[in-house]
Amino acid sequence: MAKKVKGVQCKIYVVDDIESENPTILAGQRNATLNRSAETMDSTAKDSDGGWKENEAGFKEWSVDADGLLVESDDAYDLIEDRFNASEKIGVIATLPNGKKYLGTAVITDFPIDMPYEDLATYSTAFTGSGALRKESGTVEQ
């Protein structure tokens, strides 16, 4: 029976440069979603099989949405905030417990803070990929 992956074991890291050997884990992280999609190109022709529409894969894109608790001191959060304010790209790494990791350079397209009266403050962020998303095996040092 295949071992199931628990979401709590999946982590998001950010780096100045995607080739950096010192990624910083996003403290207080709760949830994250790695989105991957491809455009479709209609390749239907008059002689298509049985009148069914045909498609080909076009350009691909990726993004990461993450949210978590706002903590008083977090180097990763500070890096995201600095890059967002400067409109600069950031390196993003998503890891799985089996050592698989996804790496890419992204722009930060959303970065709100939620400050409810009777609950903990939280943040969310959306990273939109700029270029390829690489898949590698290995580990990320915490």
TrEMBL record:
Against Pfam families, the record matches this protein to: Phage_tail_2
Q: Which InterPro entries match?
A: Phgtail_TP901_1
Gene3D superfamilies, per database record: 4.10.410.40
Q: What is this protein called?
A: Phage major tail protein, TP901-1 family
Q: Which organism is it from?
A: Evansella cellulosilytica (strain ATCC 21833 / DSM 2522 / FERM P-1141 / JCM 9156 / N-4) (Bacillus cellulosilyticus)
